[in-house]
Amino acid sequence: MPQTKTIESQIQSMPPKPDMASRRPAPYITPAGQQRLNSELRYLWKEKRPAVTKKVAEAAAMGDRSENAEYIYGKKQLREIDRRIRYLSKRLDEVVVVDRTPPDQNKVYFGAWVKLLDNDGTHKSYRLVGSDEFDMHETYISIDSVLARALLQKRTNDVVEVRLPAGSQHYQITAVWYGEPGHS
Length: 184
Hints:
Layout: H1 7-13, E1 28-29, H2 31-60, H3 69-94, E2 96-97, E3 113-117, E4 123-129, E5 140-142, H4 146-151, E6 159-164, E7 167-177
Parallel strand pairs: 1-2, 4-5
Antiparallel strand pairs: 3-4, 3-7, 6-7
Helix pairs in contact: 2-3
């Protein structure tokens, strides 16, 4: 009689998946993404932090700080601002700005625009960008995403399979280009 495996033993026998939370994001960023991070850092350091510091000083001058909601909230805001400033400073030191197109512009690399045809016959276009800038536009996807990793190094007419929790999805690459979004 064949021996059946329990769910627990099946899970234990599976190869470990890389922990996405512990993976460092790819260090790549577009010039526009770098400019956005620099602008945010400059705003936080030159405008937001001084304004909050002034409010905290005014609230502290009112007396008892332990029951002063404005003081407590202002200190919390300062901690959040300082945390973001530290993150942005560190991130800007480690990012690599990709400002050139690759020699083989028929392949998908960082910064590429890719037009895909999905299983339902729907065309969608995406741009592969850094993890710090995919929220800049609805058509931007992080280079660290499952879809972007599947697309890397592929060419027009290649079909990629993306494994998702809900099942596999297939995409055909119908165009690859670099530059402005509408030049496919």
